[in-house]
Amino acid sequence: MSDRDRARKRFIVTVLVVMLMVMTVGFSLLSSKLTIKGTGVIDSTFKVLITDAYAIEYKTGKNQSLSYDEKSVTFNVGLAKPGDLVDYIFKVENQGSIDTILKNIDYSKMIESDYIKWELVKLEEGNIENTDFIGSLLNSGEVHTFKLTVYFEERIETPPQEPLSLDMELSFDYTQYRLVII
Prior knowledge:
Blueprint (H helix, E strand, L loop, with lengths): L2 H28 L17 E11 L3 E7 L4 E6 L6 E10 L5 E11 L5 E9 L3 E3 L6 E2 L4 E10 L15 E9 L6
């Protein structure tokens, strides 16, 4: 191999090395790596509670006892004659951070007789009674007010000969509200 061939090879190798270095620097200048980091924290609570309950008596209807806690209301009503009634007002509050919806009310344990009847309504703003409240939205921080009226049927011609006792139970099913956008 002659000196001239060696010089040519050195020149070619040098040119290739220089080109490789130029390409490396060019790539470095024309590209960059971006890193995005984050942390997702879910801090939500589902907390629907009974926050108040009281009775309003009419005629000779008497509230014998009333107690409540966060999950239940217990009462005992005394009805002496036709037309007697007691309204039980109770408030359900969403103290959580998740909006909820009243999905269902289980009435299966709400027994009626010919003498003792009941009616449940939701009290809207201005004490307007709403009987169509399944599916009503209960946003975080809001309150639903319900009125359960227990009454002695007025159209009774012959009252019962012995004391009558009925156990009643309502179960409210609130679930997380899910907005569906189509």
